[in-house]
UniProtKB/TrEMBL annotation, chains A, B, C, D, E, F:
NCBIfam families: cysE, EPS_EpsC. Keywords: Acyltransferase, Amino-acid biosynthesis, Transferase. Belongs to the transferase hexapeptide repeat family. One of its GO terms (biological process) is cysteine biosynthetic process from serine. SMART domains: SATase_N (SM00971). Gene3D superfamilies: Hexapeptide repeat proteins (2.160.10.10), serine acetyltransferase, domain 1 (1.10.3130.10). It comes from the Eukaryota. It holds the Pfam family Hexapep. It comes from Daucus carota subsp. sativus (Carrot). GO terms for molecular function: serine O-acetyltransferase activity. CDD domains: LbH_SAT (cd03354). This is serine O-acetyltransferase. GO terms for cellular component: cytoplasm. Pathway: Amino-acid biosynthesis; L-cysteine biosynthesis; L-cysteine from L-serine: step 1/2.
Length: 290, 290, 290, 290, 290, 290
């Protein structure tokens, strides 16, 4: 995306720096202001969710509180809980910023940061999970589990609050994503909808996948058990994976096989979680025939 | 369905004619009236959604406004937007009528037009998408995208507002359907739940499937990239398709193969999107063995 | 789970006995009381959903009424309907108890009965379906279908009210489950998310799968047509099954094959629906290679 | 009102008899059915509040639950509380019936029993008070006081739950009525809006008015202290009364004087609480001059 | 108010002309825009109620629909009813404009037309009554009475839908106003809170006051019976009036007397309903002594 | 009230001290905890409004936000506004504490501080006004006026945000209270329901009453114009006052007269706003005769 597309003129600060959060918030407000002017029917929505707030964490807490509330879990209670958590944890806020960047730059259908903040259920589910995870680590399990349940009802995204998720994550479309209790997801990972990082049965313990940095997992892929998906690996859409996948390789099919073969798998150079290349392996997938 | 099952006695007018909309609305009101009399507990619901309205577009706009509203996007605003759009676009209303017919005649579990109008989230998501698409073509992108987001939250159906969808469409069950920005769906297509018409990565441009008239896509099928599914083709449940599928053929499996083989695929005569025959290819699917 | 984990000290009564319901309700209240004391932010939620009620059926009816209501189907109406149905049908209540036990003992992420009662959308969708099914058998189809629609909107679980479901069922994660009109599910079955028990086309009649007792169906499996999945069979994640599967065998893949081969399939001894062993067949799955 | 105006044809049973409640409920349903047929826009409202219910107490409990609920006091909880109380107390139900008769026959603007049941805030506030009073006598003060508060917020009628109120009461218009803790109101009393039955200061004890049977209290009258308003007395609009009023006499003015003079007050024969004659004393009111 | 205070620069058109409605709407939008810019916390409210609408009747219908809705009378239904009525009756819209002018120019606490439109419950109750009255004259009594009930619940203003009300009316503060079935209110009348225009008993027929043009009725005044308050008369606060009051005179007290005496009452020249002079008669009120 | 009635055992700190707020909050929590234990049906309400909060200002902000919100003014926005204002202004919080004490010790029907905090609309309206007044002084008029409107809709209490109100105020019952823009109310004043502190016409400027410290104003009293009610004066119920009232005297009647006569009015020693003695003047009121 050329820099000229930004709504504000200050140069984009270093990723992860303190300035980036402020820069991004200014950008989001500028986008929302432009949209409110162009579309009066949406202006009320944009003011209540973005333009009336003084910071990204207030806007996000308001939006999540209103999205996830129910008749028995009031929006004011959730707003308070989200705002307290985001306000007191700079790492959480940095992860939010990185996730907004991930959606904005990896998904060609994402037209603005404000678009992602307001409309991407994968983004919103992930931020709410980050708060649930924080509560989990503070031994507030019942609240964390209630929050997981609301996220699953509202966004159809079911992430156990104990699951560890890195920064710069894109859950694209997101409907039907399931992530189990002992799963770990690295940084800069992209996960499409209907993806399962599931367990292996009724035994407890460490039983869910470990996803390395930069991995791309295609729509409908199912990865089961305490397996390791190496850094930069790519999992094809609809694949069923039950064994480790080496770094920088591509696994496809049900059951999944490595492109290039088990012993001499093709290695790619890019970071699929960022390049989002779903389909370039087709020519190499020898038995893919229609 | 024998004509005798209709609640009103006037003969069924020609499909697509001006009279058909009026005929269908009279039929829906008769069905709702019968149900309200038989079930007092549901009468309030039937009056508020159907029997108190003077036209199909008012009933549908009311129902969509109440289903898709949130605390920050009020039902009255949405109702107004839906009603204005449907009232001013006869083609939209004709598509709605064709979609109601599609559900009523293709899905054996659909017991009445009123049942579809009130209860089929695939039908409702599709009608809301038609309005979002209209907004998109009027350069009202932010509103169209907000509507897409609400449809995805409420119905778990995520259709980009730019996607073009024909008439006589059945989204059966519908949960988890994802349709990308540059996808095109022809007329008389039937699509089961969990179906993805997805893109190929982070590059923009024309990157989603083109689905021909009369196609049937089974549950959980994933079709990725700017590929062409020919008229009357059939995609088996759970298939992963990344290459063109010829007309009147059947693709199954992950990766998908043509039934009958790549070079001599079996050709069927029916229109699968209308006949809804999911499974007759089994005997031909040579390596399908349990 | 060691008995010592229970919150109340009376010994666990015989499953299915009259005493079990009372024992379980006492257990749930003790769990909720402990959580309310530990987490004031959740106490209001726990009192309104559990601690203010005098019986499990009142608590469940209240919770379902509030979850499934909409602006046109009020919570009080639904509460009344649920409470009347549960109060007058001891078999329904026994099934609820068995389902709570199933979640508690099969899912290692389930930390308490109260956790399941409040937060498991699969459990809640199943109980609401049981009521819809009862209404269906009482010739109250329009109400049953309206309820199905609400369950599908709110929980993304779409079970036709005519489908017959046994006791001791675990719908784990549950998002995207679809169960057709003539499907039958036995006792002690475990079904993961995205599972489809679908039909075969637009013809009516008996057209959906029959699932035997003790079956385990993995995430994303699609079973189509009037096929029989034998007692104790196991269906691998992502499988597409269109033909009968013998008892105590394992079917995997797309198209599904029997582990051990069509003619000499491996037979397991356990009850997979209860043991929840998803992945032990891997070593036997000869062509599973990464 | 001539009997011919009733919607049902069975003769009106004896007041207070067991049959009267059933007769009245049949009448109300007939009225609501007529209105629902004449006015589709109101049919949903009439079905949800009246026509979907099997008894007057269910209809009233539903209506009060929905009127008095708030985001922190849910309608289902209130519905349950109202229904339990009305179901278990025949005297309460008889008072409700008598109050409906009072409104129907004394207020010429009351066009039907259904009109009163649905729309008269004085009637609704009084029924809710009857339940609050029952709770008060059961030593459930906090709940009774919370209910008083909701009645005061929603209907602008503030009756302390300890106040004792007879049967056949008409609170006409009702806005601004205040009735204190130790007030007692007899049978067949009519009280207009803005009437205060107030106390005398900060001392506790018996400190509010006692209103005899058949009394009529005009709009804006203020009666303060433990004074006795005799049977059949009439209090003029805007009067301020701080001393006992003898039976069958009329007090008017600020400060109030007896019509006819203190020593030879005029005595009327009718029961003003039933005849509702507000103004016939004018000619006798010697110093009333314009 | 000097013209310079207006937000738009076009000259104020003739009262009652077609142009005035457009001029006023432009003025209201300009006021709302100024307030939205100055107060981001209120911008969402101002956009949803005013700035997103294309006409005064749409804004007013939206606002009334959202204010008067309940869980059993949905906002969309009310919005539709209000919009249809206002759109089809230019006289109603002219009365609304005259009422806005009345509040703006008579009440020194009214800072803008938008302030009145959004915040004055007397104004809103009066506009809703105008619609209820229209429904009443169309023989839609049940709907009109349901609307009266909602107005009384929400605004504590109880006006019978049959009452006839002129143009340019100010209900100031408005809490507790009661206007009976056969009351008539002329043009340019100002009525303070707690005012009753009441009936005389349980007999039907013409039984409520007739208020002439330009009358001012002070807070808490009670006028009972089919009496005539002459043009330009003034009724003092707290007065109780049961007999005709001649034009241009002032009645005060309980019972009310004419200032200047019954036979030689003082006559004023101004139009009290417009000048709002509540208290200038004090020096003439001979027995007013503290 | 004997100290033994308090729920907590620490001695009552000095009024207005920093410790008093903490002491009172501890007292309120103890009261709420006792009630929650005694009444499970109310526990959810008590936890959400009081027991889940860490301070009085959080509890009050939550309660006011939920009471005053509407579909166009969300509870989260109001909660934020209340919390910010109370948190940053110790004088506001001290006034809240003094008002709670006023209700608790002057009103014999007030059984606990929690009772007042949750259920007294006069108390809640006054606290919301204090915030509106603060916004007014910060030149945020549109927001202050919107808040005034919500208070008037919800509590039927209409206080202009510019009005100045002291500490230790009891608005008892409160329905129908109207306080104008330039009114001033001193400390330790008690005001009953239906009281008007009104203006004199359409001229702006200083035009409303000034109420001295310790004044008691009876139900339905109307005080109009820029008049001075001296310290410790008492205004009888239903009085209409248009001229100054000297300190420590009692004015009664319509028009109001001084008890004891204009030239030799009786003087009382107590502080009526605190002693709440409404009626002891009766024997002195020579022309009060029934």
């Amino acid at each position: 995306m050329p820099a000229g597309e930004y709504m504000n003129n200050t140069p984009h600060p270093t990723a992860g720096s303190n300035e980036e959060e402020a820069w991004l918030w200014a950008q989001i407000k500028a986008e929302a202001r432009r949209d409110a002017e162009a579309e009066p029917a949406l202006a009320s929505y944009l003011y209540s969710t973005i333009l009336s707030h003084s910071s990204l964490e207030r806007s996000l807490s308001f939006h999540l509180g209103n999205k996830l509330c129910s008749s028995t879990l009031l929006s004011t209670l959730l707003y308070d809980m989200f705002l307290n958590t985001f306000s007191n944890d700079a790492a959480l806020r940095a992860a939010t910023v990185a996730d907004l960047r991930a959606a904005r730059f990896r998904d060609p259908a994402c037209v603005s940061f404000a678009h992602c903040l307001l409309n991407y259920k994968g983004f919103l589910a992930c931020q709410a999970h980050r708060v649930a995870h924080k509560l989990w680590t503070q031994c507030r399990q019942p609240l964390a589990l209630a929050l997981q349940s609301r996220i699953s009802d509202v966004f159809a995204v079911d992430i156990h609050p104990a699951a560890k998720i890195g920064k710069g994550i894109l859950f694209d479309h997101a409907t039907g994503v399931v992530v189990g209790e002992t799963a770990v997801i690295g940084n800069n990972v992209s996960i499409l909808h209907h993806v399962t990082l599931g367990g292996t049965g009724k035994a407890g313990g460490d039983r869910h996948p470990k996803i390395g940095d930069g991995v791309l997992i295609g729509a409908g892929a199912t990865i089961l058990g305490n397996v390791k998906i190496g850094e930069g690996a790519k999992i094809g859409a609809g694949s069923v994976v039950l064994i480790d996948v080496p770094p920088q390789t591509t696994a496809v099919g049900n059951p999944a096989r490595l492109v290039g073969g088990k012993d001499t798998p093709s290695k790619h150079e890019d970071v699929p979680g960022e390049s989002m290349d779903h389909t370039s392996f087709i020519s190499e997938w020898s038995d893919y025939i229609i």
